[in-house]
Amino acid sequence: MTQASRDWWRDAIIYQVYIRSFADGNGDGEGDIAGLRDRLPYLRDLGVDALWINPWYPSPLNDGGYDVADFRDIDPRFGDLTQAKALLDEAHGLGLRILLDIVPNHSSWEHAWFKEALAAPPGSPERARYIFRDGTGPNGDQPPNNWRSVFGGPAWERVTEPDGSPGQWYFHIFDVSQPDFDWSNPEVRAEFLDVLRFWFDLGVDGFRIDVAHGMVKDMTMPDLPYDESGLLDRPSIADHPFFDREGVHEIYRGWRELADSYDPPRLYVAEAWVHPPERLARYLRDDELHSAFNFDYLKSAWDAQDLRRSIDESITVLASVGAPATWVLENHDVERVVTRYGRGATAAGDGSARTATGPVDEQLGLRRARAAALLMLALPGGAYIYQGQELGLPEVLDLPEDSLQDPVWERSGHTERGRDGCRVPLPWTVDGPSSGFGADGSWLPQPAGWGARSVEAADADQASLLHLYRAALRTRREVVPAAEPLSWIEGVGSDVVAFRRGSGFACVVNLGAEPAVLPEHRSILLTSAELTDDGRLPGDAAAWLAL
């Protein structure tokens, strides 16, 4: 195997599959492995290199599958291990690699280990797998400290002991149904190495690591100033007691050793909400993880200076540890970019953008999303595409309250609607049940007219964003020099981002209102919008040039 094929991930385009909302193969209203297998040719033809599949493990779905009850199986609503193996084989046959989600910070409260912990007494080996502590105050009726869940409310829950008496408290960064593991316990560390080995042996090519900056806690348990931490926010204090602690790096060195024992080596991608960028680079040293989501870029405003700053910082800091930058505009936790870019304030706020308000100009958002696609795909390194991003799907902002399932809705006292708006099942056809998602409805309601945004509708429109993504991915592979670094083109105007890759390719993005003059070029490869009559690049548009 060549080094280039071993390092495929360094400039890979990875498509995120939120499996419950991708395609329903058995007609029960929820996406599944059968539906994904049927749509593999679509993903191959789109031009991506790999798929990242959100959790498909057995789960009560209190947090969209991130509350895992069994790390070595498939939830029956999605399929079984036989179907998973068939998916892996078929994807590999089409040249697509498969990444799964691993959720090492916590389990579901329906996990066998947690049930054993609840049945066992304080101080038992069963409880030592999780973070149980005695309470404070009279009779231990107050939490051990003031830590709060990032989903809202206290991060501690009191249990009833087997004899019926009020008992200890357990810690959960997220929902009450997601008790945190105690990663100081060797049994927990050994268990996850075995889980990784199980899936690698089945043929999985790598893992995206959920809350990669979590896991290790300072159990001297200092109180925190509040309100200091929001959903998917970066820790706002140094030496945070349960985020970005030094001990996570020892864990990942062990994980990397396991990944490198396979031929070809397996891949790890970090979800790590840390700041400044130098903190992120520490996760990507050559004996730890391979790459990480670039949340600084995702959160940037539609503004030339902000984007250029983020690009410069990302490339420079990650290059210091030999890691590529990885670009991302959307995922299952953040507001869809068509909606965000259609607002007056375009920065992503706290990372989830759930508190964004104000009117949305969807046509403006779509125009900017088209330009943003060309910008992202021209940058050096890899990129992620969230399902439906290639269709220009907007955030569904008006889901009926009785349909909301994100735990943020309940834990915020019905003040934050949560992340369901970016998880509405995909439309595949213009007409038919659930716009082709499945034979009989969808687990989240699709809005009226959703079929007009479908793959079928986009296929029929040569000017659609889907066709632009296909053309960009094809051109990127054929023309953009993957090994060439970025060099800025100066003198193009304060509202323009322009750069070269090598001597023959340039990307120009006009984020201003007035048309911009393009640099000297031999030909135009792609544009996100038509040029003006005099050949200038209009506002909120991008062009790829052959120099």
From TrEMBL:
One Gene Ontology term of the molecular function aspect: alpha-amylase activity
SMART domains per record: Aamy
Recorded family membership: Belongs to the glycosyl hydrolase 13 family.
InterPro entries, sorted: GH, GH13_cat_dom, O16G_dom_2
Pfam family, one: Alpha-amylase
Protein name as annotated: Alpha-glucosidase
UniProt cross-references to SUPFAM superfamilies, sorted A to Z: (Trans)glycosidases
Ranges of residues in domain Glycosyl hydrolase family 13 catalytic: 16-423
GO biological processes: oligosaccharide catabolic process
